[in-house]
Design brief:
Layout: H1 12-29, H2 32-40, E1 53-55, E2 58-59, E3 81-82, H3 87-96, E4 109-111, H4 123-136, E5 141-145, H5 151-159, E6 164-169, H6 176-179, H7 186-198, E7 204-207, H8 215-229, E8 233-236, E9 240-241, H9 243-251, H10 256-261, E10 273-274, H11 278-291, E11 294-296, H12 299-309, H13 347-357, E12 361-368, E13 372-379, H14 384-394, E14 397-400
Parallel strand pairs: 1-4, 4-5, 5-6, 6-7, 7-8, 8-11, 13-14
Antiparallel strand pairs: 2-3, 9-10, 12-13
Helix pairs in contact: 1-3, 2-3, 3-4, 7-8, 8-11
Bound molecules: iron/sulfur cluster (SF4) (2 copies).
Length: 402
């Protein structure tokens, strides 16, 4: 029997009740030492990002991609070490995180930010984490990978009562030897897409980073091959660079002048700066449309599409439909159609959530529509995590009026 509890109700009170129960169950399963380890871990307090809470199955990555920023974050390119928490400890850490909504309608969990979740040394850890998430929480899970995934592992993922969204990263066919010296070649990765699809999952091509000067010449072939391999769609990502990344790319013969021209801020130390890639993203959306692939601008939108393909009528947890990231607003097709799936909410429930989560005192303005909840109070305390928590509960942007 599965031990998860979840609810489709978009109600703060219900989610609070489920979370308290979940914490109680997990505390009864862990030794004091294991619980301490879970509570000390950053998964118990980090705020989710746009793609969800990043789940670390490993530390470091030996693939050494030249455009990767993990080295600038203090991680190594020399090895991929399994993350120290057990699956049960990880779930306990996540359940204690005040910014996490548990359940299938809850916070997305994103695997693959500081290491590849299918690097041989961490595959067992990744499956252990999936198993425990299935058993206790059932939150939607998304992974990004460049590695080969064995058919047995694909079958193990398919058998889980969990919605998993696979992203397979391929950004170049011609320059992979210089740019991704230790990762499997793109043809092996297209084969991974093919086998994931055959195995019953819904893989997307992950086109990130979008590298100016390279992508323009390769975009047609990349999308043709992804379509042929059975990708459901493509997530078109951005590119954040640091001084070190530009230096590495220049040494590999990439024309970095074009990258510098597109910088959206000053490079300093290890700071990551976004490139302005609007034109290339528009181009990629057009090419995807011509191929009959769902083109998306955010990884969370792929997760939302996969949830909907599994029959869960859920709007994007990152509420992308309330801003420019939604491709519907640009005239493209997205089968998730989030604006039609925004849940009904209860005003008293929202007031209670605002008082408890945002510590609001003297609420003077509360306006609720299909995309936003506007709040004004005499006193409020909030941070990114608290806002993301409420956004996920109500599937609406939380706007604090001053
Ligand atoms: S596979 Fe991902 S995490 Fe590993 S080096 Fe490449 S970009 Fe970085
Ligand atoms: S409808 Fe818009 S917000 Fe929803 S998944 Fe599609 S692109 Fe994202």
């Amino acid at each position: 029997m599965k031990e998860y509890m979840y609810t489709m109700t978009m109600s703060y009170r219900e989610i609070k009740r489920v979370k308290e129960e979940l914490v109680k169950i997990l505390r009864s399963r862990l030794s004091e030492e294991a619980l301490r380890r879970a509570l000390r871990d950053t998964h118990s307090r980090r705020a989710p990002r746009a793609c969800g809470l990043t789940v670390h199955v490993g530390i470091g990555c030996s693939n050494r991609c030249l455009y990767c920023y993990i080295q600038d974050m203090g991680f190594r390119f020399t090895e991929t070490r399994p993350y120290p928490l057990s699956g049960l400890e990880l779930v306990a850490a996540i359940a204690h995180n005040p910014y996490i909504v548990p359940g299938i309608q809850g916070t997305y969990l994103a695997f693959g930010s500081i290491s590849d979740p299918f690097y041989p040394t961490v595959v067992v850890k990744t499956l252990d984490y999936f198993n425990n998430i299935e058993r206790f929480m059932r939150n939607p899970c998304q992974f990004s990978t460049k590695m080969t995934i064995d058919d047995e592992v694909i079958e193990a993922m398919r058998r889980l009562d969990l919605v998993i969204s696979p992203l397979v990263t391929i950004v170049t066919i011609t320059r992979h030897r210089e740019l991704e010296p230790r990762a499997p070649d793109p043809w092996t990765r297209f084969d991974t897409i093919r086998r994931l699809r055959k195995g019953g999952l819904q893989p997307f091509l992950f086109l990130r980073p979008l590298i100016p000067g390279i992508i323009e010449n390769e975009i047609d072939e990349l999308m043709d091959e992804a379509k042929r391999a059975g990708a459901v769609g493509v997530v078109i990502g951005g590119f954040r660079v640091t001084k070190t990344i530009l230096r590495r790319l220049e040494r590999a013969g990439v024309k970095v002048d074009e990258l510098r021209r597109r910088l959206r801020g000053r490079l300093r130390g290890t700071k990551q700066v976004n490139l302005n890639l609007r034109d290339l993203k528009e181009l990629a959306l057009e090419v995807a449309k011509e191929r009959g692939l769902i083109g998306l601008l955010s990884a969370c939108c792929a997760m939302t599409n996969v949830l909907n393909l599994h029959g869960y009528r859920l709007a994007c947890a990152n509420v992308c439909f309330a801003e420019g990231l939604c491709v519907l607003k640009k005239g493209y097709v997205c089968k998730a159609r989030c604006p039609e799936k925004v849940p009904k909410v209860d005003e008293d429930d929202i007031k209670e959530a605002i008082e408890e989560v945002l510590k609001a005192r003297g609420l003077t303005h509360l306006y609720i529509d299909r995309e936003y909840i506007e709040v004004h109070a005499r006193a409020l305390e909030y941070n990114e995590g608290a806002l993301r928590f409420l956004q996920t509960v109500y599937r609406r942007r939380i706007v604090i009026r001053r």
